[in-house]
Amino acid sequence: MQGDAHESEQKSAPDPSRDLAYSIRFNELVRSLQRYRMPSQTSVQPRTVAVFNGPNLNLLGVREPEKYGLRTLSEIEQACRDVAAPFEVSIDFRQTNHEGVLIDWIQEVRENISGLVLNPAALTHSSVALMDALATVPVKVVVVHLTNIHRREPFRATDYPAKVSHGVIAGLGVGSYTAAVRYLAEDTD
Description:
By secondary structure, the chain is of the alpha/beta class. It has helices spanning 2-11, 16-34, 65-68, 73-84, 99-109, 128-134, 174-186, and strands at residues 47-53, 89-95, 115-119, 141-145, 167-170.
């Protein structure tokens, strides 16, 4: 019996070289798994919805107020920020009168946003290049129009960006913007 107890003590004695090999393999496994870990709650990037505006929208409030209303683009921007705030979503709000600049902005942010609201203004009816840029955006795009473009001149019913967008909201004035921002802010897909 004494021999059996002595043998079990020898079998359970640690082997330093085996422990070192195990430790090295374990550390290598941990390092490889760290590449695939989910980000922690503190490292999650804040969500951003881009709101881009095309030509002449800088003149809102003074240009054809009977069609577009008296609200300025700055007021629309604030309304978008107010809707996004409870969802902890930031707004990247911009306006340009130049088609190429708008396309550059889309290409610049396409991988860094959680959604895009676009009022292409007059480019709606003519810009295949804008449509092609939007087709590269991997997140949801919502096209907005202050007026109902389908109740206006026949040429305005053509909406190239809408052909590659997730949705279109038209005719609600500032509400077109806030509805789009709310939809994208609430969206977690």
